[in-house]
Amino acid sequence: MDNSIYASLNRQSGLMQEMQAIANNIANSDTTGFRKEGVVFSEHIARLGRQEPTLAMADASARMIDLRNGALQNTGGALDIALDGEGFFRLATPQGERLTRAGSFTLSPEGQIVSSDGSALLDSGGATVTIPPGFGPPAIARDGTVSVAGAAVAQIGVVLPSDPASLVHEGGTRFAIEGDTVPLADAQIVQGFLERSNVEPVREIARMIEVQRAYELGQGFLEREDSRIRAVIETLGR
Q1: Cα 12 to chain center, whole Å?
Q2: φ and ψ of 230, to 5 deg
Q3: At what angle do helices 201-237 and 3-27 cross, to 10 degrees?
Q4: Total-model pTM
Q5: Strands 120-121 and 139-140, how do they pair?
Q6: Which phi and psi angles does 196 have, rounded to 5°?
Q7: 8 Å CB contact between 105 and 192
Q8: At 205, phi and psi to the nearest 5?
Q9: What is the DSSP letter of 80?
Q10: How far is Cα 38 from Cα 25, in angstroms, rounded to an integer?
Q11: Beta-bridge partners for 152
Q12: What local confidence, expressed as pLDDT, does residue 17 receive?
């Protein structure tokens, strides 16, 4: 196969991955705590020969997570909490500890503060945050201290990944961590608020149009190359 076709197919594959990431961003533009993603392209250059030019190919093998904050929305819910700044909440899931920025929680029958799927919110020591029965909604201070009837019962754990690139998006608003995390001592938690998605839909739609046009341009090039090669084969065959 001609080198130009290899390069074009590689480019088309990367553009397709970027289109999928953009579509996922747009679909989650109203998802609480969602973090925008983008595709990271790397370039690989190979020398074809002493007298020939080099061949450059792009590889879209990684995704970048945009950690910028989303806007805070006032809900008034006692168990709706948002991070005003850096950090992630810790959740206990069947797959192990996971990180999230989505702070919409409820109270389980056992008194644990849990997410919509039942994953328990963890405190700074890695234990589940549990509210004693019969005391009503807790008060949550900006430093994460959870109080019931004026007495502190837990402190919500907020952490940062040592390396942001070690975050692995598992879908929705959950992240696995392949490296270490460090406690965020000066975390700012706001009760009665939720953090909106940090996706800007207009920008994403504009980028989607750009990627679509680039993909169509590459597709047209491949079709012209295919016609050229067929014509050469037919000519040589005669």
Answers
A1: 23
A2: -60, -40
A3: 160
A4: 0.81
A5: unpaired
A6: -75, 170
A7: no
A8: -65, -40
A9: B
A10: 9
A11: 147
A12: 87
